[in-house]
Amino acid sequence: MRKPLIAGNWKMHGSTASAIELADTLGSCRHLFEGADMVVFPPAVYIQHVAEQLVKNNIAVGGQTVSEHAKGAYTGEISAGMLKDLGCSYVLVGHSERRALYVETSQSVAEKFKAAQENKLTPILCVGESLLERQQDKTFAVINSQIAAVIDLVGLEAVCNGVVAYEPVWAIGTGQVASPEQAQEVHATIRKQLGEGGSTTRLLYGGSVKSSNAAALFSQPDIDGGLVGGASLEAEEFLKIAQLTL
Ligand code: 13P
Fold first, then answer.
1. What is the CATH number of domain 5-243?
2. Percent above pLDDT 70 for the chain
3. Given 95, 97, 187, 237, which residue is catalytic?
4. In the annotation, is 95 catalytic?
5. What is the pTM of this model?
6. Cβ pair 159, 147 in contact under 8 A
7. Cα–Cα distance between 71 and 81 in angstroms, integer?
């Protein structure tokens, strides 16, 4: 049985005060979603404040990205060891915004995945196709190659020990959520690619998840939770979504 996982990607939003307030509310409502794991991804500068509030309530904290390097002259970068040091236990790798806006290649995403695991962080590998790729019937080929790049570097077993989030680019921040059937079809294909070991790997769906559409998504057999952007910034809405994973 896979334990549901609900993840909140705060992206570049908030302030010290709002991050602490949100963390406080989530922490005090932990009893509402006891059967699920939760992780939030605040902007790096707020990780420590948020971790102080949440880790004691058994809610995990993670980084939105990580350097593939352990240390050195990489201005602006944060290593996996540093995230661990701040109290993180997860990290997002290969979010489509990182791939598209910061030109992260599948090779560098694979190296970030490796750096995370070497530092005992659980990587959430984000994959997904653009609208054009879906229209051109390339969805499965794109996702397959994004995952294969990581398998090539770290091996299948290591990928199975992480988490994979399917986030169709066309569904992110657009309000245009994938249908439960569309999402399930991709999740089933990902699980197949992971082989036997993938039967215990948690696969998340992300892209315009809200409390109004989450139940239908989470009831699909291969969807084990969600990676939520905008709706994770509102405590009440995010808590509702968390409860729908159960
Ligand atoms: P939205 O939920 O705002 O569409 O964002 C999804 C996402 O990118 C989570 O990583």
1. 3.20.20.70
2. 100
3. 95
4. yes
5. 0.98
6. yes
7. 9
